[in-house]
Amino acid sequence: MWQEIGECFTALSNTADCRVIVLSGQGKNFTGGIDIQSLVQLASEADDLPDVARKARFHSNFIKYAQDTITSLEVCVKPVLSVVHSACVGAGVDLITAADMRYCTEDAWFSVREVDVGLAADVGTLQRLPKVVGNTSIARELCFTGRKFTAQEAKEIGLVSKVFPDKDTAMNTVMDIAVNIASKSPIAVQTTKINLVYSQSRPNQDGLEHIRLLNAVMNQGEDLPKSAIAQATKGPPPEFDNV
Ligand SMILES: CC/C=C\C=C\CC(=O)SCCNC(=O)CCNC(=O)[C@H](O)C(C)(C)COP(=O)(O)OP(=O)(O)OC[C@H]1O[C@@H](n2cnc3c(N)ncnc32)[C@H](O)[C@@H]1OP(=O)(O)O
């Protein structure tokens, strides 16, 4: 699954007729996080190596691979909307915090469970959760304790944008949001995502410089006049070529 997630988001990022991605889970839970047996197996494979440097390199390589998998959501230029139902544990929080938007059902619950399996979270939660919720005290409490928190609390701290009564309602509403985004200029939407991601950990001046250079090129495209004229004339929504 690690491999498929990375391949999937890389492929969708490069698939012209995909404009928006909705990520949801099948079955009883959104995700129970990393397969614990595979984690134990990995530790034992590292243990079999003859010396500490090689053990360290083995761990480092897998962590990098897993980090890149989660980061593939962020690197993907198409907006990723995630919909969580029931449990979202450990790697699930890493995954959704790399998405652009998060929604959940009333029965959803979350846990930054890594400390309880003896790990410091290493595939994104520690970097992204504090920024997503904008409150380092609550982010740290959740990371240090691994405690379960409800959909309601996730909404209160800003982890999710909205809580829906059930999965069908959540999916229908989030699909409407996705359709709305997909109707807009893909150049404008994707450049917006690229700049938001670039700017999230940099000074404003760097982000401004980045968008200035991007738009010096992108503003020469056909989507800007098409959209601007439709807005100004209250004309029908324009159609845009895929990127
Ligand atoms: C480089 C490192 C990269 C990433 C690291 C990520 C770290 C993490 O993800 S830490 C989190 C690890 N996950 C957990 O600790 C979750 C433990 N499981 C649970 O809390 C619950 O099982 C549940 C996910 C909330 C689901 O509960 P429920 O719906 O009640 O089902 P269960 O009966 O408990 O489980 C069914 C069945 O699945 C097995 N299982 C559940 N989660 C895992 C898992 N993460 N790994 C392996 N197996 C799991 C559970 O043991 C049950 O198995 P049976 O054989 O049916 O007993």
UniProtKB/TrEMBL annotation:
<dbReference type="GO" id="GO:0005777">
    <property type="term" value="C:peroxisome"/>
</dbReference>
<keyword id="KW-0576">Peroxisome</keyword>
<dbReference type="InterPro" id="IPR001753">
    <property type="entry name" value="Enoyl-CoA_hydra/iso"/>
</dbReference>
<keyword id="KW-0413">Isomerase</keyword>
<dbReference type="GO" id="GO:0006635">
    <property type="term" value="P:fatty acid beta-oxidation"/>
</dbReference>
<comment type="pathway">
    <text>Lipid metabolism; fatty acid beta-oxidation.</text>
</comment>
<comment type="similarity">
    <text>Belongs to the enoyl-CoA hydratase/isomerase family.</text>
</comment>
<keyword id="KW-0443">Lipid metabolism</keyword>
<dbReference type="InterPro" id="IPR045002">
    <property type="entry name" value="Ech1-like"/>
</dbReference>
<dbReference type="GO" id="GO:0005739">
    <property type="term" value="C:mitochondrion"/>
</dbReference>
<keyword id="KW-0007">Acetylation</keyword>
<dbReference type="Pfam" id="PF00378">
    <property type="entry name" value="ECH_1"/>
</dbReference>
<dbReference type="InterPro" id="IPR014748">
    <property type="entry name" value="Enoyl-CoA_hydra_C"/>
</dbReference>
<comment type="function">
    <text>Isomerization of 3-trans,5-cis-dienoyl-CoA to 2-trans,4-trans-dienoyl-CoA.</text>
</comment>
<dbReference type="GO" id="GO:0051750">
    <property type="term" value="F:delta(3,5)-delta(2,4)-dienoyl-CoA isomerase activity"/>
</dbReference>
<dbReference type="InterPro" id="IPR029045">
    <property type="entry name" value="ClpP/crotonase-like_dom_sf"/>
</dbReference>
<protein>
    <recommendedName>
        <fullName>Delta(3,5)-Delta(2,4)-dienoyl-CoA isomerase, mitochondrial</fullName>
    </recommendedName>
</protein>
<keyword id="KW-0276">Fatty acid metabolism</keyword>
